[in-house]
Design brief:
Elements lengths: L1 H24 L2 H9 L2 H28 L6 H17 L5 H13 L3 H29 L8 H19 L9 H16 L3 H28 L6 H17 L7 H12 L4 H18 L1 H20 L3 H8 L1
Helix pairs in contact: 1-11, 2-12, 3-4, 3-6, 3-9, 3-12, 4-5, 4-13, 5-6, 6-7, 6-9, 6-10, 7-8, 9-10, 9-12, 10-11, 11-12
């Protein structure tokens, strides 16, 4: 029952958000966003996405190696493109990550460990994004600047708690909580806090956040925003963090978040909607190589299935 409610709550919520936006700002910003997307913006999105995807794949490769389940960089890049495409096109915003973890887990004969590597990799990216967002919103004028000291204090407390968790001593193996705690602490120590891991994971995450912010700034400029990059950067980081919290911020959610962020900053809610539309199209086009990876994998699996001899034919031959 709960799954059914949640399955329908997301599309209904997105539809309601779109309805409210159309009621408040009209259809003009949506049409403007569709009309203003050009080849230059799409090419920029594809180029930036290539760099950020390689960085994400390197981050995943580093974390997976720390957990003892290696993956080559070319395979990681292909799998990451596929997961991004699935995240963008399917409801929930995490289907691609689950698929990536399960596929890698099957390759190394440990689905649980494969999923944990993906969770840990995405967790590291979110932590770095939150850190950069907090610093930028503390330093630059934004609609939430007055609240950032409290957010910064909570963030520091959270990081301290994670570090303490990674250093906890083992408890009784009979306790489920102790087993889960020990597993999480072991994964964090080996996958993130190891000497060969944390620098690479941190730098890769910084480049990923910078690439996403640059994509958002290109989308805002394409949508006709005339504000300076210094004024737009905190808005971009704030909107991206809100979209991440909203599980990907798909159609409807994304435009609602950008409308709020732009409106609170005095740039204009309508311009925020147009930017959200442009950004969504840019991200979709940038992840299209993932569709190619899916097609290639489908043809490969189909070809392998045809080559496998049928057990009935084997039996007939022996008979």
């Amino acid at each position: 029952m709960r799954r059914t409610v949640w399955r329908w709550a997301r599309p209904i919520g997105s539809a309601l958000t779109l309805g409210v936006l159309v009621w408040r700002v009209g259809t003009g910003p949506f049409l403007d966003g569709l009309r203003m997307v050009d080849g230059r913006a799409l090419a920029a999105a594809a180029g930036i996405a290539l760099l950020t995807t390689v960085c994400c794949a390197w981050r995943w490769k580093t974390v997976a190696a720390g957990l003892g389940i290696g993956v080559s960089l070319p395979a990681a890049v292909a799998a990451y493109y596929r997961s991004q495409f699935l995240n963008v096109t399917l409801p929930g915003g995490v289907v691609g990550d689950v698929h990536r973890g399960v596929s890698h887990g099957r390759t190394v004969s440990d689905v649980g460990l494969g999923l944990r590597a993906v969770v840990l990799e995405r967790f590291a990216g979110q932590i770095v994004q939150l850190l950069l967002t907090v610093v930028a919103l503390l330093a630059l004028p934004s609609p939430v600047q007055s609240s950032m000291p409290v957010v910064a204090a909570v963030f520091v407390a959270f990081v301290v708690a994670v570090v303490v968790l990674a250093r906890v001593r083992r408890g009784s193996p009979r306790s489920l909580w102790a087993r889960l705690r020990n597993a999480a602490a072991r994964d964090i120590r080996h996958g993130l806090l190891a000497r060969k891991a944390w620098v690479g994971v941190g730098l890769a995450s910084v480049f990923v956040v910078a690439g996403h912010a640059l994509t958002f700034l290109v989308a805002a400029q394409t949508a006709g925003t005339t504000a300076s990059p210094a004024q737009m950067l905190p808005i971009a980081l704030l909107a991206m963090m809100a979209m991440g919290i909203a599980s990907g911020g798909g159609w409807g959610q994304r435009e609602g978040l950008t409308a709020w962020a732009f409106g609170a900053a005095g740039v204009g809610a309508g311009r925020g909607v147009a930017t959200g539309v442009v950004y969504g199209i840019m991200v979709l086009v940038a992840t299209l190589p993932g569709a190619g990876v899916l097609v290639v994998a489908w043809f490969r699996d189909t070809r392998l299935a045809r080559r496998k001899p049928s057990p009935f034919r084997k039996g007939a031959a022996h008979a």
